[in-house]
Design a protein that fits this description.
Length: 264
């Protein structure tokens, strides 16, 4: 491997890394030379971490971690320090969604979505910041927001609230952690094919009309100016830039990576 890999000598932790966008992010950061900690509530993350290590030739660590558990998150950061001695980049990617009309939306579902998407990012940032501060000269915290941090969609008030919340969290932490040389930014994907989007297509499709599988998603993709759905690589490309030294003067921002779906 050449020495031009952008993440050489960096340690990067990605939550929600067993599948979907998080797995794609972990793979790309590993391919760019990072040692990657893959965290997920699913035990399958250990298998994913082993596969990422095999394909990249880099070191990885898989950790079973529910980001809503302060104890799990604390253990994740301890395991990261024990294994790699440092942390440069935390990517708060874990997320979840449910879709329901207001009268069917339970308090439990509301609380769960807020807990994973917003509180989880808070807990991980809180636990990771001291290690990043001590061990990295150019620390980064990158938080998964969404197009739904720009505009709420129908039947997902809890998800929209959680992702608008991620932007507030991002701005506030960017101000507090700037003195430690840690930048904090959010990324807003539009439509990226994943288990989450398969669920979205099915449930919104059912509630908004009688759509065949994939039909609703196809309708929404037609309206994307760049004419296609996003990929894991589209998201990872943005994050690789935000994690790089070249992005050292960018903090407190939420950046859309959605083919122009949202322009605010
Ligand atoms: P996904 O559902 O396909 O994968 C999410 C991963 O997070 C899974 O591996 C899951 O096990 C893990 N996870 C869920 N809850 C967890 C918890 N409490 N602790 C640890 N891990 C947990 O989702 P995705 O489409 O890959 O989305 C990744 C992120 O991007 C999420 O934050 C999501 O809200 C956001 N996002 C996705 C899209 C999209 O189009 N797919 C669009 C906008 C934003």
């Amino acid at each position: 491997m050449t020495s031009t890999r952008r993440m050489e000598n960096k340690v990067v932790a990605v939550t929600g890394a067993a599948a979907g966008i998080g797995r794609g992010i972990a793979d790309r950061f590993a391919a760019e030379g990072a040692a990657v900690v893959l965290a997920d509530r699913e035990d399958s993350v250990h298998q994913t971490a082993a596969e990422t290590a095999r394909t990249s030739g880099n070191q990885t660590l898989g950790v079973t971690c529910d980001v809503t558990s302060e104890a799990d998150v604390s253990a994740l950061i301890t395991a990261t320090e024990d294994r790699f001695g440092r942390l440069d980049v935390l990517i708060n990617n874990a997320g979840t969604i449910t879709i329901a009309p207001l009268q069917d939306l339970s308090l439990e579902a509301w609380n769960r979505v807020l807990a994973v998407n917003t509180t989880g990012a808070f807990l991980c940032a809180k636990a990771a910041a001291p290690l990043i501060r001590r061990t990295s000269a150019s620390g980064r915290i990158l938080n998964a927001a969404s197009g739904q941090a720009r505009q709420g969609f129908i039947y997902t008030p809890h998800y929209a609230a959680s992702k608008f919340g991620v932007i507030g969290l991002t701005q506030s932490l960017a101000k507090e952690l700037a003195k430690d040389g840690i930048t904090v930014n959010a990324y807003c994907p539009g439509i990226v094919g994943s288990d989450m989007w398969a669920y979205n297509d099915r449930e919104w499709g059912r509630l908004l009309g009688d759509y065949a599988p994939g039909e609703l998603m196809a309708t929404w993709i037609e309206d994307i100016p760049l004419g296609r759905a996003g990929t894991n690589d589209d998201v990872a490309n943005l994050l690789l830039f935000l994690a790089s030294d070249e992005a050292g003067y960018i903090t407190g921002q939420a950046i859309n990576v959605d083919g122009g779906m949202f322009m605010n």
